[in-house]
Amino acid sequence: MISKPRGTRDFLPDEMEKRKVLENIMRDVAERYGYREVSTPTFEHLELFTKKSGESILKEIYHFKDKSGRDLALRPELTAAVTRMILEECHAMPRPLRFYYFSNCFRYERPQKGRYREFWQFGVELVGSSMPQADVEVIALAYDIMKSAGVDFSLHVGHVGILRDMLKDFKGETAQLMRLIDKKDHKGLQESLESLNAPEELIEKTLTFTKLLGGPEILDEAETIAGSSEHIDYLRGVCEMLDLLKLDYSVDLGIARGLDYYTGVVFEAYAEGLGAQNQICGGGSYRLAHLFGSRDIPSTGFALGFDRIAELSQFKKEERGLIAVVSVKGYEKEAIKTARELRTRYQVVTDVMGRNMKNQLSNASDIGAKLAVIIGKEEVEQGFITVKNLETGKQWKSSIDELISGYEQFLE
Predict the structure, then answer these.
(1) Are both 33 and 87 inside the same structural domain?
(2) pTM for this predicted structure
(3) Any idea what the CATH number is for the domain that residue 169 is in?
(4) Total domain count for the chain?
(5) pLDDT tens digits for range 31-47
């Protein structure tokens, strides 16, 4: 027997219905903010991802040569692909661009709880603005999507520009230092700074600064440690607008995102119940277009870990009312015709197995139908249908129009 590849999953109907509910919730919130959906290819030129993340990403992605020898890769995320699409396809569109996407991505890594080799991301990109209002809009959109998805989460907001200024004397090592900060590896950060002969005062300031977590008032303490900064002033202004919107968040000056292209405000959201992999959202303002040979374009975006949110969410598909049309032998054609009329409003199934009436009714209960519509000689000759409540056993003579206009009346 051939099994599915490691790190992938099959989704049966119950799980797919739950995921579709969540997907539609996220789409609805994004569209109410004025965002429109885009889609990019499942595979791209490998260079797109190595230019963005460096050669080290080769160990983490699925890449291959096609039959013409071109180097291609399955997308490990969507930001690079959407940026490529914008540079290639969206020259004449008015700014800012407001896009959202929902797609599967692929990473070659060790599968664990909440982390798979094929996974789904829901994300947005707001392209063309460097104003704080853009950061606030994107953070608020992420917040509203997670709230609407019914997930308990904590939102943390920071600014990588402050950290980069503090570490400006270590330009060749800044990326590695930022990754250590991103992992909350304070011991590793201290050891790295010591190996770089950083002054003891700077080491102490950096370690203290990256542990700052609290309300907007900690920005005063941040200013005492790092000195006056346009980045702190900018973040303070963002916090004022987030407070105006009554968002629940914490200022976290240890968020680094671990990627060089983030330039300003960054944010992450964490949820309980996922073990070590508890981050469900990450984003911020970034500059990426110049890596692909274009002029610099300010952007802000985020990606949601759809699989992790689906694991936490308790949403179920809204009950639409499943009806089984069952028939006496010889009246199958009338059953098919009746089912077609009822499908204008309801989910309807008919027997395709040649079962007798008793087994048709038994199967209808097994698949979750609440009502059965019975078609036999008397119903056809006299022009009515028999509606049976499969839970109570109660039956009514009715018309198709009466059932279409009022499913609930037969559930009493």
Answers:
(1) yes
(2) 0.91
(3) 3.30.930.10
(4) 2
(5) 999 999 999 999 999 99
